[in-house]
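so my prof wants the structure for this chain in the tokens format not the other one, which i didnt know existed until like an hour ago. anyway here's the sequence
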Amino acid sequence: MSTGNTLVLDFEKNIVELENKIESLKHLAAEQDVDIAQEVSRLQQKLERQVRASYSNLNPWEKSQVARHPERPHCLDYVHGLIEDFTPLCGDRLFADDEAMIGGIGRFKGFSVVVLGQEKGHDLETRLKYNFGMAKPEGYRKAQRLMDLADKFNMPVICFVDTSGAFPGVEAEARGQAEAIASSIQKCLQIKVPVISVVIGEGGSGGAIAIATANKVLMLEHAIYSVISPEGCASILWRSADKVKEATEALRLTAQDLKRLGIIDEVIAEPLGGAHRDVKVTIENVGNALLKNLKELLPLSPDELKKQRNEKFLKMGRNFE
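here's what i got, hopefully its the right format
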């Protein structure tokens, strides 16, 4: 359990106080050669109880905060942890390369795969480099190009979804942002190889569904997935940022709500205290879930894969008519 988090969420204050107290005691023991093992053990048990109590009763707004935690593992963390011999493939062959959209080929558990995902970055420098995970039209056109590549060479597609939404700037609109997203969704529905998407943090609007129109859609336990951000919803419906908690409740954006509604297929457990507290275990959990779902899809024929994917999303529309 990490104690070095730079961001302290409101509901984590008591947890961080206990973590800091344990670290202080350990530091004191190292300096003065004092045996405080019993006290540290008692505090660690208290800490675990506090973390378990806090994280077992998170409301949707608190889950949104966890989903956005800057120390959660991001797309490239999963790529480095799960994909061997990853080779990035850049550019859309039309305009430019979009670094917010990661794309490439590699091997996952012995299977050759195409990997797509949005990368947010971990600090100011990398966040600016990756445009905070908000892809432009060239990013979605790069995704389409790589999906065509996957289809041609019969390689499954694995997508890591983590974006607050597609880039909303004027230049992106001028280059056809809406068309690029729509074409990316269409391409997801057309290809005849297994497509698995995992919402690892935020799944925001069309920017997320552009690479999440998959045979299997998985979500981490504290991830969120919605048509609009809570802040955007509050500003439109109530014209007030003070209503963000009510907006979060109304959106039904948690993994648990979406699994119950049939929007996603599986919820992947996070370590106690969230993905940011144990990145290694989180990546292992995602890898295990991906492998299980990939093995379920591989026996299906190309036509069956395409049909299953199309029927899956048509069924959602029928259910909500």
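also thought this was worth mentioning. The beta strands are 84-88, 101-108, 111-118, 157-163, 195-204, 216-220, 224-226, 266-268.
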